[in-house]
Structure formats: structure tokens, C-alpha cells
Design a protein that fits this description.
Blueprint (H helix, E strand, L loop, with lengths): L24 H4 L5 E5 L2 H9 L6 E7 L12 E7 L3 E5 L9 H8 L5 E3 L2 H12 L3 E6 H8 L14 H8 L20 H26 L11 E5 L2 E3 L37 H11 L23 E3 L8 E3 L21
Parallel strand pairs: 1-4, 2-5, 5-6
Antiparallel strand pairs: 2-3, 3-4, 6-7, 7-8, 9-10
């Protein structure tokens, strides 16, 4: 409980965020909206030819790969959401990529909008050889039209759910459906999930563009739009490499520097492992000036020479005391006759 009472210490507690209702495309559509789940390229061409003019919410899905280090599976589903139509095009089930879908994605007059769609467009080209033009990144558009709310680096990502909560007032449901198999026949739960993602992108774009029209400063398309042609990310004109930039964007004050991490204290005493590592790395005996005796009794180990061991176990050594003569040091009696 927050607050201050006489004779007590004030305690601050975080205010919980209000729980927002779930976004569902059937209820939040501005007009009666139809949805089509399509697995045939001829039907896809027909439905795409009927699309109303205007921007499209854009998203992709593909089957997840749970093996570490394995390459991603190809795009299985293309989602497009317009004013009154949502198309779920399962290209992985089609005998060929729909020709009309290539035309819609290539059309420079039709906006394709979403979150982190630069990677999606590059993956679509990598998997299906399809280029996409007039792509709008919603995170950059939001930072351009609502800079007072969003600070930090201009290219820092903003999630779809966060943008939806901010500008539409609904939350986006996530869960196991996101990691399901998008190459099989889609269930009703998968269809609703895919439709919500694409339609949410459309709804956010409509809200942000309305805000841009009310601004005194012009928000130019090159602040937030780009093309992906033959796998290359180009500017909104398709001429040069695209570098996201808004000259009027204010990132706010810099973040405070991170505190340096404390270094672990190491013992000054030389351990046997350190000695063995030094011996193994240098290949020479210890110097006479190093003493390992610290109890004050007996001669220091400097009086005992140490030679590296000539065996396969690196880091181990043999000590040879001086008071034990070696075979080369034993006295010889040349007058001794064993026959006597």
C-alpha cells in the first residue's frame, strides 16, 4: 500500500497496468470484413484481383524449427489485411506461387505495413524469389509521428502488441499457436491468430497516418518506408541503400552509463596449478628466486631444483633433491674386480 502515514516510512509501489480487452478482427473492423483461407494459387489470384484499393497489413508465418543451429523453414503463410478483406494465403500448400500475389507485393502504390517487416520481406525473397515494394515499418512511423512518447535510438524496435495497446486500446493474444505448424491444414485458432496479426497492423497504420495528417511538420515517407528488391533493402524510391533516418527525431537524453562489473579477487599466492601451467607453457624450470614455503620451517623449495616432466601429462613435474646422487654422480671404483 502506497502513501505516507505519521511516524511511518513512505513506500512506493508500482501501479499495475490496466488489463486491456483482447483484439479480435471481427469486432474491431471498421467495416464488415470477410476472411478467406486459401490453399490454391488460382483461387488466390481471383481473390487478390478483388482487393479494394488501399494499404494492407502484412505478415508472414512459417513452421518453427526446434533443432539448434538448423536453418529456418520456408515461408508457409502470407497474411494480407485490408479495409474489408483478410486473405490467409498458404503458399506452402500451393503448386506455385500466385502470380497476382507477386503483383500486389511489387505494386509501389500499395502500402504493405507491419512490425519488423524488413526481415520478413528479405525472407520472402530468399524463400520464394519475391520482391516487395512500398513497405512501411510501423515502429519508425510511430517514432516519427509521436516522438514525445517514444525516446531512445530511432531504430530501436517497438512490438506489435505494444503499439496496438498504445494506439488502438487493445491487447494482442499470444500463446502456443504462434509456435505451431503453419504448413498443415490451419485450425480455426491458427486462422484467427494470423488474421489478428495482419489486421492489427492495418489498424495501427490507419491510426498513425491520421496522426501524421494532423501534424504541422511534414512526415516524409523516407523516414519509415523502404523497398526490398532482389533481396536488397533500398530507399522508398528504390535507388540507393536504405538507412533508416529522421533528421527531426529527438532521442531524448542519453541513457546513464552502466556501472562497471567488479573484478573477482585472485589470491596472490602461487598455487601448484599455476606453477604447472607456467612450467608447461615455458618448458623451463622454476627460477631459484621463487619460494613456495610459507611456514618458516625447513629450507625453502628454492634449494630443490624442479625440472619439467618428459611425459604426455602436461603440467606435472618431478622434484629431484640434491642430496640423492644420481647414477651419473655415484663414485666409481676402477680397481674393483668382481671375480675376487
Amino acid at each position: 500500500m502506497s502513501g505516507t502515514a505519521e511516524g511511518s516510512v513512505s513506500v512506493k509501489t508500482a501501479v499495475p497496468r490496466p488489463e486491456l480487452p483482447r483484439y479480435f478482427w471481427r469486432e474491431q473492423s471498421p467495416a464488415p470484413t470477410r476472411i478467406r483461407y486459401i490453399t490454391d494459387h488460382r483461387e488466390a489470384d481471383f481473390e487478390l484481383s478483388r482487393l479494394a484499393i488501399g494499404p494492407l497489413g502484412f505478415d508472414l508465418e512459417w513452421r518453427p524449427n526446434y533443432r539448434k543451429g538448423a536453418s529456418e523453414n520456408p515461408v508457409a503463410l502470407v497474411q494480407l489485411a485490408g479495409f474489408d478483406t483478410i486473405l490467409l494465403l498458404q503458399v506452402s500448400a500451393m503448386s506455385e506461387f500466385p502470380l497476382k500475389l507477386r503483383e500486389v507485393l511489387w505494386d509501389p502504390l500499395r502500402v504493405k505495413t507491419g512490425v519488423s517487416i524488413q526481415r520478413d520481406c528479405q525472407k520472402l525473397y530468399q524463400d520464394w524469389g519475391v520482391s516487395t515494394r512500398n513497405c512501411v515499418e510501423l515502429a519508425l512511423l510511430a517514432r516519427s509521428v509521436d516522438n514525445a512518447r517514444w525516446k531512445g535510438k530511432y531504430t530501436n524496435p517497438l512490438g506489435l502488441s505494444r503499439l496496438l495497446e498504445t494506439y488502438v486500446g487493445f491487447s494482442l493474444a499470444k500463446g502456443k499457436v504462434q509456435r505451431s505448424n503453419w504448413e498443415l491444414r490451419l485450425s480455426s485458432a491458427q486462422q484467427d491468430y494470423a488474421a489478428n496479426d495482419a489486421h492489427a497492423g492495418y489498424a495501427i497504420y490507419a491510426r498513425l497516418i491520421a496522426m501524421a495528417r494532423d501534424m504541422s511538420d511534414t512526415v516524409f515517407p523516407y523516414y519509415y518506408s523502404f523497398n526490398v528488391v532482389n533481396g536488397f533493402v533500398l530507399d522508398h524510391l528504390g535507388i540507393s541503400q536504405w538507412i533508416p533516418h529522421n533528421p527531426n527525431y529527438d532521442p531524448g537524453p542519453p541513457a546513464p552509463p552502466k556501472e562497471p562489473k567488479e573484478k573477482k579477487k585472485t589470491s596472490r599466492a602461487l598455487t601448484s596449478s599455476a606453477v604447472s601451467q607456467t612450467t608447461a607453457s615455458s618448458g623451463s624450470s622454476l627460477q631459484d628466486g621463487i619460494s613456495m614455503r610459507n611456514d618458516g620451517r625447513g629450507p625453502p623449495l628454492t634449494s630443490v631444483p624442479v625440472a619439467p616432466a618428459l611425459n604426455s601429462q602436461a603440467g606435472r613435474f618431478h622434484r629431484i633433491p640434491r642430496n640423492i646422487p644420481t647414477s651419473a654422480q655415484r663414485p666409481q671404483n676402477h680397481s674393483y674386480d668382481p671375480a675376487q
